[in-house]
């Protein structure tokens, strides 16, 4: 993930966590629950550029999925599913055109593990005290 996308994703993730936390205020909600609700919410993008999406599509097409984490596999197959959908509707689009379209779409979730998300939220809390 490019640095600018990572920063943007982290900001959006933190904002989503804070939104979830405030939804429950004044009731208590654990950090784990905040994070789980947050990572499963729709996001404004996949936080990937078109080149990265094209690379993912090629990896799925060529079956290069042996050593990837479960959450990464989920991301790959979501992008692949969208690629197939776009190609069925617009067979004349090339790979990069499809990848650009996908890179600009909303994503169904933040693609990170719960453990990574909890650690990231704590790190972001330190940078952004409430």
Distinctive features:
mainly alpha, elongated, 2 domains
Task: Write the SSE topology.
Elements: H1 3-24, H2 31-39, H3 50-61, H4 70-89, H5 95-103, H6 114-127
Helix pairs in contact: 1-2, 1-6, 2-6, 3-4, 3-5, 4-5
In short:
This protein is an all-alpha fold and 130 residues long. It has 6 helices and no strands.
Mean of residue pLDDT values: 93
Count of domain modules: 2
Largest sheet: none
> How large is the radius of gyration?
16 Å
What do these coordinates show?
The longest helix has 22 residues, at 3-24. The two termini are 28 Å apart. The chain is 66% helix and 0% strand. It is mostly helical.
């Amino acid at each position: 993930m490019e640095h600018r996308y990572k920063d943007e994703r982290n900001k959006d993730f933190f904002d989503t966590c804070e939104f979830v936390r405030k939804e429950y205020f004044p009731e208590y909600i654990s950090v784990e629950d905040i994070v789980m609700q947050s990572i499963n919410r729709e996001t404004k993008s996949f936080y990937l550029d078109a080149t990265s999406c094209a690379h993912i599509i090629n990896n799925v097409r060529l079956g290069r999925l042996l050593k990837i984490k479960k959450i990464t596999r989920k991301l790959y197959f979501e992008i692949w599913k969208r690629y197939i959908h776009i190609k069925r509707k617009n067979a004349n689009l090339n790979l990069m055109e499809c990848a650009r379209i996908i890179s600009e779409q909303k994503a169904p979730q933040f693609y990170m593990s719960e453990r990574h998300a909890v650690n990231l939220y704590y790190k972001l809390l330190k940078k952004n005290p409430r």
